[in-house]
Amino acid sequence: EAQVTQNPRYLITVTGKKLTVTCSQNMNHEYMSWYRQDPGLGLRQIYYSMNVEVTDKGDVPEGYKVSRKEKRNFPLILESPSPNQTSLYFCASNHLVGAFQETQYFGPGTRLLVL
Amino acid sequence: AQTVTQSQPEMSVQEAETVTLSCTYDTSESDYYLFWYKQPPSRQMILVIRQEAYKQQNATENRFSVNFQKAAKSFSLKISDSQLGDAAMYFCAYTGTASKLTFGTGTRLQVTL
Known about the structure:
The complex is a heterodimer. Chain A is mostly beta strands. Chain A contains no helices and 13 strands. The relative contact order of chain A is 0.32. By secondary structure, chain B is mainly β. Helices cover 0% and strands 52% of the residues of chain B. Chain B has no helices and twelve strands. The chains are: A mainly beta, B mainly beta. The A-B interface holds A 31, 33, 35, 40-45, 48, 50, 58, 88, 90, 92, 96, 99-101, 103-104, 106, 108-109, 111 and B 31-33, 35, 43-45, 47, 50, 91, 95-97, 99-106.
């Protein structure tokens, strides 16, 4: 089954404790991205990757890191989480057709609470 | 930078009736794609419909159709014969050559009996 998986689905942590949210897709997609969703703000892109070892900042990259060592995986790292990073996080992936994105497939979301 | 505006934070429709959700966007590009995504209480993001800007014909998917007005930069979603399962948050999204997806702030749709 074609899918994007994220782990963990729910996470409660404390300020400053490093954490990683994993993301994996089995569709051989070139493009992967991370979003955060906050009430009244919609989804905002954190980082994206157009292929292995190619990553770039989205609209709200502060406080986050990513890596793309393998095509299928795109982990999101919070080195020193703060309460303002409490949010719902989505990973997504899609094929690229020239300069354009095909339809994005989303993971189930990770709800993060930073105390 | 591209922006997407959904001016209706909440909408309500009676079961079996038709409702239209509004979306406008701002871009200087001529080629791009537009999407509507549905987010039910499960929080899963589900693609509802997609429109390529170069196509003049409006996209349709069963009870869902769009009214794409390229000159006006408008992309509204029409839901016909509304069902209780249509209750969700709906997001309009834009992607062009910048290789990113820009979302609106969403419209919460309530379906009443």
